[in-house]
């Protein structure tokens, strides 16, 4: 710093000092702001999730139980994550403003990566909870079925959801997921195709049953002739019609009723 | 204290089986070491008992409850006719507080187990209709007692042995007993005359049905009215079960095969 330049040199010194201070000051304010925003986000996300009855919805899932054991809960975890995300992004911006971090491509990438990581983690948590919930729901629905193999269905549903969640999370992070997507497509095709093939009779009966239930061409107590059998209708449901004659009850699939037509006997 | 034990021990001496009514998990576990067969009778098999009888209704009358449990245990082959059974149940709120000794072959059979399990309709449907009748008996209409008659199961035959009194409000509807909407419709129900016909799967087929069975040979206790007579008659001619809410004394009665099987007081539920 040349001394002979006098007042102007002094001014430059002051200016630099002041602008350094200003940047530091703005950075500090920004960081404080980010901190407050993070705390507020945490609180409002928590309140929002509670308002959506999330604690009730996740109750009993293994994820929630693990979280409880670690002294937190799903809602606490999610809101903490959101708060942390806001705080870290704010902190990064503050650091860049104060020129502590070099303003190059690396920091931009770092912010992006952090954002992607955040979304991936959220997707994973939601996926895990949805998977557990699906398994619970499926096993609840199949509770009346006393076949031990039925438990496999719940597990299958759970891992399908896990798989899809992991796929979304990985693609967020930019990992090449094409082979996994192909695998998923093959799996989905298998489920739809084989499932459709296996249940095609049920589907046909169900479709016919919907028509029969909606329009009710014959009702319980009517005497009818269908599928070569004459008798009194005892029951109509989505898949079958039960017709009784002299103590013999015929269970006739609805698609056969539809295909063969019905004779309604009116004396 | 030991004296009291000696005196009361006679109740459980030489029993061949034990019947636990709605035991808690720990209570059931404490019986794990006995060599006697332990039969659990409860609404849900929450203790994973090997010998289990499902209790469709929480019978307030202990005799009905024990009858149901024993008839169920006999029907399920858990106990034999000649067995003496100790039944542990509760009289008041809380856990098991009472033990009785019953000779399985000698107590009067009421057929209450068959009413639920061996009728055409699902046990859950019969339970739902019972609950409906009990609810209706409790509420009545504007504080006045109402009567109602539900014919459950074998709906096709019942429809052919009855005629409509008016337009059927349930035509082309798919309401099942046990649907939440039925509770809302309960008030309307009490206004409808005639019988309700419910199918094997619980669908309410019709209201306003006038039952036309021949009452010949039906033998029901004297003092019961035309509604009960019709109920007894239709169960004799079909495989249906009838559940009747009496307008005069407010009791819920169940008929099967032309006979009175069960009598409940709605106020106790």
Q: Any overview of this molecule?
A:
The complex is a heterodimer of chains A (267) and B (269). Chain A contains nine helices and five strands; from the N terminus they run ααααααααββββαβ. Chain A has helices spanning 7-51, 54-58, 62-69, 74-97, 105-141, 151-172, 178-198, 200-215, 254-260, and strands spanning 223-226, 229-236, 240-245, 248-253, 262-265. Chain A has a five-stranded antiparallel sheet. Chain A starts with 6 loop residues before the first helix and ends with a strand. The mean pLDDT of chain A is 84. Helices cover 29% and strands 23% of the residues of chain B. Chain B is elongated. The chains are: A alpha+beta (267), B alpha/beta (269).
Low-confidence stretches of chain B: none
Largest sheet of chain B: 7 strands, mixed
How many E-type strands of chain B? 12
Helix content of chain A: 55-70%
Mean pLDDT of chain A: 84
Contiguous helical run count of chain B: 8
User: Which two chains form the greatest contact, residue counts included?
Assistant: A-B, 13 and 17 residues
Shape of chain A: elongated
- Strand arrangement, major sheet of chain A: 4-3-2-1-5
How does the overall form of chain B come out from the CA principal axes?
elongated
Cα-based radius of gyration of chain A, to the nearest Å: 33 Å
Summed over residues and divided by their number, the pLDDT of chain B gives a mean of: 85
> What kind of sheet is the major sheet of chain A?
5 strands, antiparallel
Structural class of chain B: alpha/beta
Low-confidence stretches of chain A: none
How much strand of chain A? 5-15%
Q: What is the alpha-carbon Rg of chain B in Å? A: 20 Å
- State the end-to-end CA separation of chain A: 119 Å
Beginning-to-end CA distance, first to last residue of chain B:
37 Å
Looking at this protein, list some descriptive labels.
heterodimer; A: about 270 residues; alpha+beta; five-stranded antiparallel sheet; 9 helices; 5 strands; B: about 270 residues; alpha/beta; seven-stranded mixed sheet; five-stranded mixed sheet; 8 helices; 12 strands; elongated
């Amino acid at each position: 710093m040349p001394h002979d330049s006098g007042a102007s040199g002094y001014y430059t010194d002051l200016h630099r000092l002041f602008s350094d201070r200003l940047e530091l000051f703005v950075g500090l304010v920004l960081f404080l702001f980010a901190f407050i925003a993070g705390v507020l986000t945490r609180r409002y996300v928590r309140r929002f999730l509670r308002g959506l009855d999330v604690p009730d919805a996740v109750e009993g899932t293994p994820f929630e139980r693990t979280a409880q054991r670690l002294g937190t809960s799903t809602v606490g975890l999610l809101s903490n994550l959101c708060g942390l995300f806001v705080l870290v992004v704010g902190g990064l911006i503050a650091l860049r403003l104060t020129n502590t971090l070099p303003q190059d491509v690396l920091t931009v990438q770092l912010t992006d990566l952090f954002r992607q990581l955040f979304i991936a983690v959220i997707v994973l948590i939601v996926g895990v909870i949805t998977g557990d919930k699906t398994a619970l729901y499926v096993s609840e629905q199949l509770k009346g079925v006393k076949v031990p193999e039925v438990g496999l269905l719940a597990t299958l549903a759970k891992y399908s959801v896990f798989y899809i969640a992991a796929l979304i999370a990985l693609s967020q992070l930019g990992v090449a997921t094409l082979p996994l997507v192909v695998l998923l497509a093959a799996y989905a095709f298998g489920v739809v195709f084989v499932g459709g093939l296996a249940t095609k009779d049920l589907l046909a009966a169900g479709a016919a049953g919907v028509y029969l239930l909606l329009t009710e061409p014959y009702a319980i107590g009517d005497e009818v002739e269908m599928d070569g059998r004459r008798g009194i209708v005892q029951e109509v449901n989505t898949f079958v019609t039960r017709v009784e004659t002299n103590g013999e009850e015929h269970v006739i699939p609805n698609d056969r009723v539809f295909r063969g037509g019905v004779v309604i006997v009116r004396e | 204290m030991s004296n009291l034990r000696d005196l009361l021990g006679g109740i459980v001496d030489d029993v061949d089986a034990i019947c636990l009514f709605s035991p808690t998990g720990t209570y059931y576990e404490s019986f794990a070491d006995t060599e006697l067969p332990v039969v659990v009778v409860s609404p849900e098999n929450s203790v994973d008992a090997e010998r289990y009888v499902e209790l469709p209704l929480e019978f307030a009358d202990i005799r009905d409850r024990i009858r149901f449990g024993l008839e169920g245990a006999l029907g399920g082959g858990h106990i034999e006719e000649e067995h003496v059974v100790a039944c542990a149940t509760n009289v008041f709120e809380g856990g098991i507080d009472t033990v009785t000794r019953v000779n399985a072959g000698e107590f009067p059979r009421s057929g209450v187990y068959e009413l639920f399990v061996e009728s055409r309709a699902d046990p859950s449907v019969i339970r739902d209709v019972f609950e409906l009748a009990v609810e209706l008996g409790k509420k009545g209409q504007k504080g006045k007692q109402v009567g109602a008659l539900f014919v459950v199961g074998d709906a096709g035959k019942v429809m052919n042995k009855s005629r409509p009194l008016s337009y059927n409000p349930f035509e082309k509807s798919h309401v099942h007993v046990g649907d939440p909407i039925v509770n809302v419709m309960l008030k309307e129900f009490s206004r409808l005359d005639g019988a309700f016909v419910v199918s094997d799967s619980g669908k309410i087929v019709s209201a306003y049905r006038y039952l036309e069975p021949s009452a010949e040979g039906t033998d029901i206790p004297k003092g019961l009215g035309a509604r009960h007579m019709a109920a007894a008659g239709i169960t004799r001619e079909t495989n249906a079960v009838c559940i009747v809410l009496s307008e005069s004394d407010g009791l819920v009665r169940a008929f099967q095969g032309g006979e009175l099987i069960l009598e409940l007081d709605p106020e106790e539920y």
